[in-house]
Design a protein that fits this description.
The complex is a heterodimer. Helix content of chain A is 38%, strand content 27%. In chain A, helix 7 links the parallel strand 7 and strand 8. By secondary structure, chain A is of the alpha/beta class. Chain A has one domain: Rossmann fold (3-Layer(aba) Sandwich), CATH 3.40.50. Chain A is globular and about 45 Å long. In chain A, helix 3 runs parallel beside helix 6. Chain A contains ten helices and ten strands. By secondary structure, chain B is mainly α. Helix content of chain B is 74%, strand content 3%. In chain B, strands 1-2 form a two-stranded antiparallel sheet. The longest helix of chain B has 35 residues. Chain B starts with a helix and ends in a 14-residue tail after the last helix. Classes of the chains: A alpha/beta, B mainly alpha. At the A-B interface, helix 2 and helix 3 of A face helix 6 and helix 7 of B.
């Protein structure tokens, strides 16, 4: 479904991604692990048009999308839940959800109802401003907002960041359900234990390179991953 | 004239001026919302609308003063002419003076310099082309007194401004609150990058805010010129006052700009009673200084970045 081939991203003179290659297949949950500054967010920003690769290609459903602008991605079928959730603070929950359907034509009230069924708390908070929600509620809203675009590929950037363990459980359960309903998921996480539990496959990034990738079940038992990421996450949380 | 009559006379004039300030102020506030930039060349959008209205009135009004339907028709035509020309000048400004800077991620100071440079270019161009003396605009009506409040006459000119102002304010408020364009403008104002992830075309949204703000500013220029005449420097003081109104209401806040405009218009007009006429501009800009010192977020006190 998505193939990234030798993609290089530069910020001015600094090279953030040194030619990364990976793929996501339809129906998978794929996770990208790595420490802070490894290039995970840059990878996601590249995958949603916020920062085009200098060289290399991104192929989505057979089309090269490496130079497509960010505002075209929703229509392509790729939705991005950004790091830090980035809810529109002065819009209500309802308006935030409507923003997710910005490029859609015709009625989307069915999908609104579907979001309210998946996230009952959002229905309760429907008329409240996005900026007044708790972190967990904002994360649900950010995911709901992205799903309003009916994406085939959902990109999630650190969905567990800053959330309580119980909320993290809920968020990951929802991510799993999203995949079950037919949306492919690519999730960037520092919380490797949680991410690998629901993922099919994972890649590990260091210093702007993908150092290895494997089935999630193998990575969970991989000594390199256990030492660096799982140890850290257990203590960190 | 009794004090009460004078008060109401000035109050009505102040409300009318306030609507004009408000119509110009929304241009500042909309552009600020999406770009975090004060378009200091907005004064020339106002001026170009004034001249557009003048030329249309000059071409369409003969020796006799129109009345009835002809008056309504001419006013509508004048507003459309001012609005269209204002929108065109605003679009040119965005394309020529601002977009290239945006592409290069230029510092904010560069925008300011570009704005001031464009402003000088435009009003000097107007001075060269249209002469450097104030020209009165052919009137589409006899400016008679329509009714009086507390003995103070309310003239047709003020009624026209009042009607146009109310229609524009309500219309713009609805557009920003309910339409797709409005949602795009608000999203870009609150978080441009995330707005683009939702599918909002930032470039187009920015261009549209210039068009909308330019149209209102140009229409206001026509109405202002109708009462005061047109001259190449006509934009400077009213636009600076409208900027004051936008800051007073809370820059970036649309309703704040409208309320700020009305408030500024009334306060500066009534200062004639309480201080004296010569101090009108001092009072208006004193308000700007006071707001910046005491309450920089303006009356509605919103955080920066809310365009509605």
């Amino acid at each position: 479904m998505l193939q990234v081939n030798d993609a290089v991203v530069r910020y001015g003179a600094i090279t953030a991604l040194h030619g990364i290659t990976f793929e996501v297949q339809k129906g998978e949950i794929v996770t990208l692990l790595g420490a802070n500054g490894a290039g995970k967010s840059t990878t996601l920003r590249m995958l949603s048009g916020l920062h085009a690769p200098a060289t290399g290609s991104i192929v989505f459903e057979g089309h090269d999308i490496s130079q497509v602008k960010a505002h075209k991605f929703m229509e392509l079928g790729i939705a991005h839940v950004p790091e830090g959730r980035r809810i529109f603070p002065q819009m209500t929950v309802e308006e935030n959800l409507e923003m997710g359907a910005f490029t859609r034509k015709g009625s989307f009230s069915d999908d609104m109802e579907r979001m309210y069924t998946t996230f009952p708390i959002l229905k309760e908070r429907r008329k409240q401003l996005g900026g007044n929600l708790s972190g967990g509620e904002q994360q649900m809203l950010a995911i709901g907002r992205a799903l309003m675009g009916n994406p085939r590929l959902l990109l999630l950037d650190e969905p567990s960041m800053g959330l309580a363990p119980m909320i993290i459980e809920t968020i990951f359960r929802i991510i799993d359900e999203i995949r079950d309903s037919g949306t492919t998921v690519f999730v960037v996480e520092q919380n490797a234990a949680q991410a690998l539990r629901i993922a099919d496959r994972g890649y590990v990034m260091e210093n702007g390179r993908i150092v290895f990738g494997d089935k999630a079940s193998n990575l969970l038992h991989d000594e390199r991953v256990r030492a660096v990421y799982l140890g850290e996450t257990v203590e960190g949380d | 004239m009794t004090l009460r009559r004078e008060f109401w006379y000035l109050f009505v004039g102040g409300v009318a001026n306030g609507f004009l300030y408000g119509m110009v102020a929304v241009g500042y506030t909309l552009v600020y919302g999406v770009l975090r930039l004060i378009n200091f060349a907005h004064s020339e959008i106002f001026m170009s609308g004034g001249f557009a209205g003048y030329f249309v009135m000059k071409a369409m009004i003969g020796s006799s003063v129109p009345s009835g339907f002809a008056t309504v028709y001419l006013i509508v035509i004048g507003i459309v002419a001012g609005g269209v020309v204002g929108a065109i000048v605003a679009t040119l400004l965005e394309r020529v003076a601002y977009r290239p800077l945006r592409r290069r991620n230029a510092p904010k100071l560069a925008y300011l310099i570009s704005a001031i440079g464009s402003s000088y270019f435009l009003f000097n161009l107007a001075g060269k082309e249209f002469g450097r003396y104030s020209i009165s605009v052919p009137q589409p009506y006899v400016n008679h007194t329509v009714f009086t409040i507390f003995g103070a006459p309310v003239q047709l000119y003020y009624i026209v401004i009042l009607i146009v102002g109310v229609v524009m304010f309500l219309g713009l408020d609805r557009v920003v609150a309910t339409t797709k364009l409005g949602r795009g403008i608000r999203a870009v104002a609150q978080d441009a990058e995330t707005a683009s992830l939702m599918g909002v075309n930032i470039d187009r949204t920015i261009a549209m805010t210039f068009i909308v703000g330019g149209a209102l500013g140009g229409a206001a220029g026509f109405l202002f010129g109708l009462g005061t005449g047109v001259v190449f420097t006509m934009g400077f003081t009213p636009a600076l006052k409208a900027f004051t109104a936008a800051v007073l209401g809370g820059i970036g806040n649309l309703r704040g700009a409208m309320i700020g405009g009305l408030l500024l218009g009334v306060v500066e007009s009534l200062s004639v009673v309480f201080v004296q006429a010569a101090y009108i501009d001092v009072v208006a800009f004193g308000i700007l200084v006071a707001v910046l010192l005491i309450r920089p977020t303006g009356l509605l006190g919103e955080r920066l970045g809310r365009a509605a």
